[in-house]
Design goal:
The structure is a single chain. Helix 5 packs across helix 6 and helix 6 crosses helix 7. Strands 3-11-8-4-7-5-6 form a 7-stranded mixed sheet, with helices on both faces. Strands 1-2 form a two-stranded antiparallel sheet. The longest helix has 22 residues. It is of the alpha/beta class and 251 residues long. The protein has one domain. The N terminus and C terminus are likely disordered. Helix content is 40%, strand content 20%.
């Protein structure tokens, strides 16, 4: 049992251990409070940021980033940006945090069927056509890491909206090296630098694959220039112990 203070009356935070159902309800809000703490304690620096000019000219936009830097990415996003969140249990974990920092969670399908994907796309299309930007992790939710999927290109083409790539780099961060994307978590009181690509407009007659490739190249160039140690394309493959032994014998 944990109390806020001793004495009469005694205020208990917990009178008994939380059951499984209680933890499921509490965990998303604890995660949300952590995200809010980062938002309040971190500093943000923006480089080559086109969003202010776009907003001034009444031009909507889509923001593309990689899954590994999604936490830092959402911290510096503009208020009202839409973020696609699945209706799965994992999706429920991030909704409170997004709301606390001013994002609008757009709930997609919990399934992986084509029908579910079309429903999620329609939700995004309606939000963008309403004049609000959307932020998407283009290699999520399960990778491959650094490989952009076609969803953002389809959204850009349907809404005739330009895409801008963004890379967020905290000056101090935890890196979860065993996750598929090497997820990065900013540390409180750090500074986060945001680097933006040039605007990427859908071109007449361009295939979805072609537009997706241009978005992927823009993000890769940002990593290569500003974060080569963590950049997907620049990180050398780790050699296995067997490879190292074979190379030593050959020498």
């Amino acid at each position: 049992m944990i109390s806020l203070y001793m004495g009469e009356p005694m205020v208990w935070v917990m009178s008994r251990p939380l059951d499984t159902a209680g933890m499921k309800k509490l965990t998303p809000w604890l995660a949300g409070l952590f995200v809010l703490t980062l938002r309040l304690t971190c500093r943000f620096r923006y480089n080559n940021d086109p969003r202010q000019l776009l907003n001034r000219d009444g031009v909507n936009h889509l923001v593309a980033g990689y899954h590994a830097v999604q936490i830092a990415g959402v911290l510096g996003a503009e208020p009202g940006v839409g973020t696609m969140v699945s209706r799965s249990k994992d999706g429920e974990l991030v909704v409170p945090g997004l709301k606390l920092i001013g994002h609008v969670p757009l709930r997609g399908s919990s399934g992986t069927s084509e029908k579910g994907g079309l429903a999620a796309l329609q939700t995004l299309v309606e939000y963008v056509r309403g004049g609000k930007p959307v932020m998407l992790t283009v290699d999520g939710p399960r990778g491959p890491r650094g490989k952009a999927h076609k969803g953002i290109s389809l959204l850009a083409r349907k809404t005739k909206t330009p895409v801008v790539g963004v890379l967020a780099i905290p000056t101090r961060r935890w890196i979860l090296s065993k996750t598929w994307d090497r997820l990065q978590i900013p540390k409180p009181f750090c500074t986060i630098d945001y680097y933006f690509s040039d605007l990427i407009y859908p071109q007449r007659g361009e295939s979805l694959s072609g537009l997706t490739q241009r978005i992927e190249v823009a993000l890769d160039e940002l990593e290569k220039k500003h974060d080569p140690e963590e950049g997907y394309r620049e990180r050398p493959k780790r050699r296995s112990r067997r490879q190292s032994v074979s190379e030593q014998k050959a020498a």
